Structure formats: structure tokens, C-alpha cells
């Protein structure tokens, strides 16, 4: 979880670049947009004023998106926009995979794999 939080500026920059990339599938771009809207929206499943738990739902949504991008989108495309080292990207991918482990793999494949 700490790896995700420390890498947040790099993740935001990468997501912004990927959203504009013509190679990324439309379903992935829609998932990115929906996740960004959810995270910045004041309406959450768990209100943000509840200590720790309030931000946990945002973190889990972000982890699902990061996991999908880093584990199902071509790594070369991701590295094109990733401002950090490949080692940091790998640590972020592992952390996101752990947090998003409960999401069915077939759903991630459907959203993030090219068609």
C-alpha cells in the first residue's frame, strides 16, 4: 500500500498519458475515466470523513485500475509514460495486484486486454 501512495504522482502522470494513447482499448480508457471520477468525487461508498476507512475505498479502486493497467496492458506502452524506474513500476504492480486480488481475472482481462 505504501508503494502505491509513494508512487502516486508517477501513477497520475502515467494514467494521463495512457488515457490519450491511441493504442489503449476503449474499455480501458472508460475504466480509467470512471476510476478518476470516483476518486475525485465527493460521493463515495464510504464517506471520506471516516478516519482511514474513508479513503480505503478510493485506494482500492485506484489499485484495481493500476493492477489492470500494469498487468494486462502492454508493458512497453506503460513504460512510455512511466516517469520512474522499471523497478519501481514492478513494485507498484505487485502492490496493486495484492490489493486487487479479489477482482476476478476474467473481468480485468475483459476491461484491459486489447480487442
Q: What gross morphology would you assign?
A: globular
- What structural class is derived from the secondary structure elements? mainly alpha
| Alpha-carbon distance between the two ends | 31 Å
**Proportion of residues in helical segments:** over 70%
Q: Can you give the mean pLDDT?
A: 83
> From N to C, what is the helix and strand string?
HHHHHHH
In the predicted model, the low-confidence regions spanning at least 5 consecutive residues are none
- Gyration radius, to the nearest Å? 14 Å
Please give the largest β-sheet: none
Strand residues, percent: under 5%
Total count of helical runs of at least 4 residues: 7
Kindly state the number of beta strands. 0
Overall number of domains: 1
List the keywords.
single chain; 115 residues; mainly alpha; 7 helices; 71% helix; 0% strand
Explain how this protein is built:
There is one protein chain. The protein has 115 residues and is mostly helical. Helix 2 crosses helix 3 and helix 4 packs across helix 6. It contains seven helices and no strands. The chain has one domain.
Topology (elements, then pairings):
Layout: H1 2-6, H2 8-20, H3 26-40, H4 53-72, H5 75-81, H6 86-99, H7 105-112
Helix pairs in contact: 2-3, 2-5, 3-4, 4-6
Amino acid at each position: 500500500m505504501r508503494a502505491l501512495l509513494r508512487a502516486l504522482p508517477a501513477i497520475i502522470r502515467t494514467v494521463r498519458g495512457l488515457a490519450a494513447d491511441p493504442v489503449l482499448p476503449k474499455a480501458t480508457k472508460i475504466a480509467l475515466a470512471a476510476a478518476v471520477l470516483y476518486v475525485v468525487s465527493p460521493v463515495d461508498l464510504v464517506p471520506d470523513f471516516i478516519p482511514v476507512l474513508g479513503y480505503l475505498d478510493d485506494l482500492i479502486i485506484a489499485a484495481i485500475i493500476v493492477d489492470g493497467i500494469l498487468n494486462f496492458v502492454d508493458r512497453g506502452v506503460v513504460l512510455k509514460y512511466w516517469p520512474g524506474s522499471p523497478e519501481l513500476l514492478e513494485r507498484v504492480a505487485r502492490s496493486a495486484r495484492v490489493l486487487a486480488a479479489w477482482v476476478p481475472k476474467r473481468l480485468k482481462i475483459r476491461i484491459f486486454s486489447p480487442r
